[in-house]
Specification:
The protein is mainly beta. It has one domain: Beta Barrel (Porin). Helices cover 5% and strands 57% of the residues. The strands form 2 sheets. It has a 12-stranded antiparallel barrel. A two-stranded antiparallel sheet has the order 2-3. The radius of gyration is 17 Å and the shape is globular.
Length: 247
């Protein structure tokens, strides 16, 4: 899984269909300080912070990360979209960079910036920039992450900003390849489907390595929203299934 907020684009840790994509493709030489990793996934829906961006259809996703042993990294990730329902075109492309590393034993920090790009969207402003930071805690078989992402005022956000706060939990079941996961997020700003521009999103699920680099996952995902009668429900609760591989 892409770490912290990168999984929220990718996704979102449990909200976007990069849901169980774990980077593992490593081209490392014994004396090299650079690691290259990649991931691919097929998800039954692309959910970004609880919001359906694939119109309920399958999403094809993948990404590449390049990391230095100093902790600095850059990467890119992409997903198919439903251009007829969502209105962002058929593709999302994310480019990000930052630094991650251990602050102390059991405590990791990740900070960076991400650019969301919609290369074949129609007329108008759609691309936007977001800054992110998270702290990850490890205790026994459990992991927890708390994070924040902030997109400053931009034309693509209607001349306003957007704040996202989240926490993620993961607990490995001893003696099995299964990890139970949970996510709770809160959005205040432009990127909601509520009348007051405030919304919670959530998910609970499980993931498991099934063979080599291949993993499967399922999560029940939803978000708050005020949807007009007859309109497509972007935040309707749904089970999302993911098949991923890392190399």
């Amino acid at each position: 899984m892409l770490t912290s907020i990168r999984s929220l684009t990718a996704a979102t840790i449990l909200s976007t269909s990069a849901l169980f994509a774990v980077p593992a493709f490593a081209q490392e030489e014994s004396e090299s300080s650079i690691t290259v990793s990649a991931n691919v996934a097929i998800a039954s829906e692309y959910r970004f912070r609880g919001v359906d961006l694939s119109g309920g259809d399958l999403a094809i996703q993948g990404g590449v990360d390049v990391a230095h042993d100093s902790g600095f990294y850059i990467g890119t990730w992409a997903s198919s979209l439903d251009e007829d329902t969502v209105g962002y075109g058929a593709t999302e492309l994310d480019i990000y960079g930052g630094w991650s590393g251990n602050v102390t034993e059991g405590l990791a920090l990740d900070v960076g910036v991400i650019q969301y790009i919609y290369p074949n969207a129609g007329p108008g402003e759609f691309d936007y920039t977001e800054f992110y930071s998270s702290l990850g805690f490890t205790f026994g078989p459990a992991e927890a992450t708390v994070g924040v992402a902030y997109a400053p005022e931009q034309d693509s956000l209607g001349g306003t900003d957007n704040l996202y706060l989240y926490t993620d939990l993961g607990v490995g079941i001893p003696g099995t390849p299964v990890t139970v996961t949970g996510h709770l997020g809160y959005t205040d700003g432009f990127l909601t489907y509520t009348n007051d521009s405030k919304a919670f999103d959530w998910s609970i699920g499980a993931e498991a390595a099934v063979y080599g680099p291949v993993s499967v996952g399922v999560a029940y995902i939803g978000a708050e929203g005020d949807i007009p009668v007859g309109a497509y429900d972007f935040v309707d609760d749904a089970f999302v299934f993911t098949l991923s591989a890392s190399f």
